[in-house]
Amino acid sequence: MHALDMITAKRDGQRHSDAQLRAWIDAVAAGTVPDYQAAAWLMAVFLRGMDAAETHALTVAMADSGRRLDLSVLGDQVVDKHSTGGVGDKTTLVVGPLAAAMGLTVAKMSGQGLGHTGGTLDKLESVPGLKVAMSPEAIIDQARRIGLVIAGQSQDLAPADKILYALRDVTATVPSLPLIASSIMSKKLASGAPAIVLDVKVGGGAFMKTLDEARALAEAMAEIGRRSGLRMACCLSRMDAPLGRAVGNALELREAIATLRGEGPSDLHELSLTLVGLMQVLALHSGQPDHRRSEMEHALRDGSALGLLRRMIEAQGGDGRVIDEPERLPTAPVRGMVTAEASGWVTAMDAEAIGRIALDLGAGRRQKEDAVDPAVGIVMQVGLGDRIAAGRPLAEIHAQGDLTADTAAVALRRAVTITDDPLPALPAVVIEQWVRL
Ligand code: URA
Questions:
Q1: Is 82 a catalytic residue?
Q2: Choosing from 22, 168, 254, 398, which is the catalytic residue?
Q3: Does domain 3-49 fall into CATH 1.20.970.10?
Q4: Is 184 a pocket residue for ligand 1 (Cβ < 6 Å)?
Q5: Cβ(117) to ligand 1 under 6 A?
Q6: What is the atom index within ligand 1 of the atom nearest the CA of 168?
Q7: Would residue 168 show up in a list of annotated catalytic residues for this protein?
Q8: Does the annotation count 269 as an active-site position?
Q9: How far from chain centre, in Å, is Cα 174?
Q10: Three-state DSSP class for 397?
Q11: pTM of this structure
């Protein structure tokens, strides 16, 4: 296989065979393809695209470039969940324990946040002592005992994707449907679950800004899963305002804990129940998305879902007392309330801008190597559609210093649109959902 032949073929709009893609990805993973040739090929794919069979073959080759976890030893109640990422998206911290409380097994490898969207691992790591670096054996052992693990992605999870993603990031080739779908799904295939629920975010704070783009990504990922014999379900959910009220690591964990007590914001509650409903349909190979809704509500009220989060935290070396004593989580020294300058209705929130404000406060990372500050962030005091009077609280800022808090306050006021007229109707968080068994 010559790199030049691969580049030429794709430049001219030809399709690659499974064998060609396998050899190409093996060479990329082995480090024998120079960056300039891999980058040229990525641009050719960006411009020419790939059909469903090519996208699937690329995905499988990338998944096979590293170690693949085999979760089949845990039975067929194992279901994974993946979100394409958003602002304030702490859903995994609610969905994991709730799904485990409903008898499913969740052994999940999560990622760190990059840019304006947060990552589950950073939120979880705000618990003092908690470890996310786990061996495959430890993941399987904990999943067997508790039914719930959220671990970090191992270094050898789809290493070819890591190499290609780093090149895409600096060659303007990230926003390509086959490249995004294969990148995400290679890590999912290597994570080993036989069933996956996708939460594809749509809107200003998401990767996919329009419903059509989000649908196309969902379909492409589901098709890869289907061709690999996985059961797939998808929920398209709104990300044009932060999910819930909290944005920032420890603040989001507190909100997830409140939601697991049944006291969370309604959008997070609704999305979490929808996703766990879909996970149950996949585990049972049948049913309706609303499956066992009243039992899920019960598992929140009776503390069983929250108890599973505590058990997971303790099993991973963390301080389980944070569940009942959230003041044990890191807190920021400066807290300031931003108030509304005018009265009216909250009709828009710029989720991406709010994510960037949290990033500037230190809650996220610009470069992979950056450390995150677990304590800082924002807690919105209003939601989309609310009425607010001038001088009333808009958001609370948690910062390390007065200067960063003041800068954040100015940007926050700009990120929230207050108008004289209300929204005609409050948009639902779940836009659509479907199952492919
Ligand atoms: N997330 C990934 O893992 N890969 C992409 O290409 C985009 C988002």
A1: yes
A2: 168
A3: yes
A4: yes
A5: no
A6: 6
A7: yes
A8: no
A9: 17
A10: strand
A11: 0.96
